[in-house]
Sequence to fold (577 residues):
Amino acid sequence: MTISMHGTGIDGSRPVAIGRAYLLNREPSPQPAPIAASQVAAELMRLDRALEGARLHLERVREQIPEGTPKHIAEFIDSHLMMMTDSALVDATRDVIREQSVNASYALQSQRDTLVAVFDQMEDAYLRTRRDDIDHVVRQIQQFLGAGPDRAPVVEIDVDGRVVVAEDLTPADTILLRQRGVAAFVVEHGGPMSHTAILARSLDIPAVMGLHRACERLHDGELLVVDAETGSVLTELEPGILEHYRARLAGFDAHRRELRRLVREPAVTLDGTPVLLLANLELPEDVTAARDNGAAGVGLYRTEFLYMNRDVLPDEEEHLENYLSIVRGLDGIPLTIRTLDLGADKQIPDTVFHPARTNPALGLRAIRLCLKEPGLFLPQLRAILRASAEGPIRLMIPMISCMSEVEAVLQLVSEARRQMRRDGLPFDPLMPIGGMIEVPAAALMAGALAKRLDFLSIGTNDLIQYTLAIDRVDDAVSYLYDPLHPSVIRLIKHVIDSAKATRTPVGMCGEMAGDARFTGLLLGLGLREFSMHPGSLLEVKDRVRRCDRRQMSQTLAPLLEHLEETPAEELLARLQP
Ligand code: PEP
Ligand code: MG
Fold:
């Protein structure tokens, strides 16, 4: 019978995937370490001590089972204890140590692989659980052998067409897995606005986050349906269910084909208001998707991925090359480059840089980190300026929380310009410099920021996190992450109104901008510039073209007075075309 489990869905334009599970191994496969013949006896003793330690540990666990606990729990532990003396596991491991002169951890692992391979041939669900028992037992013995907890490097695995199931995933892993053809993600931890989730969405990879104990409940190699629309993962699939999902996949593809007819159509509301629809880019290769989906420009290029999966910092030339490849690919449409936003959930290896960790979201992140570490920031600033000689570029500062940060950046930019003039390097002297509104403090002083900057862009992912005091990475509080919270709507309105008062362009580049359910509301609030992952552009354009902007504002005006009393569903329902 089909089994369904639930987490939080991260859906793009193709919110369903069907594929076999790939359990991202949390423990590294122990590597063979040759040992001298004279060490074999000591290694065998080490194995015996580990077996004894694991056995005593399990016996203690069994003794502590409270009275009245169902009998099968104790039996389950007994079966593990028996396995620890089973010759197929223990004697065979000893043989590997003797015959191959290798360390005990590796010998145990290779015997585990041999046994699991036998179980993998079997279709029977009960026998499959026995295979998992072997894994649990081996893991326990490995712990007593002192095997480390890190997982195998993502770069070495083959996940083409597979559903990667992991305890957690870093944004850096997500990128590597995408390059290796992953079909979907199922992750035990992480909120829907974590950068991993945003990446998955922007890469159009369906994902279910916050599915607790997924690594235990799902089995390597089994066929899964990932339904990111409902946040569910289905296993033990009945044929009817599989058929249903195959038909849904075909439906999504048909809808996407249907939307494609809008690519060259203008983004204009029914009553003639032009709307700027821009793309968010994570990687230079996303330029193709941005152009294919008719983006009028790039409203957010997240440059931190330039720093990931590597051991040395990029220098000015590498930044420049990266930006030039994008500017050239965009063929004259504008590119907004956001300066580095490292330090919260987008970390780089400690060997490269070591940001403060006590409370990363509130710590030395983004522009704070850049101003503290000019060695990190200046090569990027100079490269952005140099790239501006080749095409329309805007520079955007993340996480502004006070005016002094803006002043400091403007000063650094003037200094960089002065140096470049001196060195005869070309740049655009009028390159616009803007700031992201991601912190309530910045939203509340948007008027002052608008006077000092050339444009503003509302980063709702962080603005919601900081307004509602909800860690966007923590799935335990993701139920509180609410773009329609009255305070969030009021802050957005305040930013738009403040920017308009000084005729400063204002856009939105958080995930909210790419969610077509909110298009009517945002148009009603006065937003005219939306930046989103390329996969959402046509869906939002469709919505824009069916909305009457004036009517949206008129409907919204009285509702704004009663946001606390208006249920979110009603608000949204009244603001659909
Ligand atoms: C945001 O916070 O809304 C945003 C666009 O930036 P990021 O998601 O990269 O933090
Ligand atoms: Mg942000």
Summary: Residues 398, 438, 459, 461-462 surround magnesium ion (ligand 2) (CB under 6 Å). The chain has three domains: 3-25+152-251, 37-145, 264-574. The two ends are 41 Å apart (CA to CA). The mean pLDDT is 88.
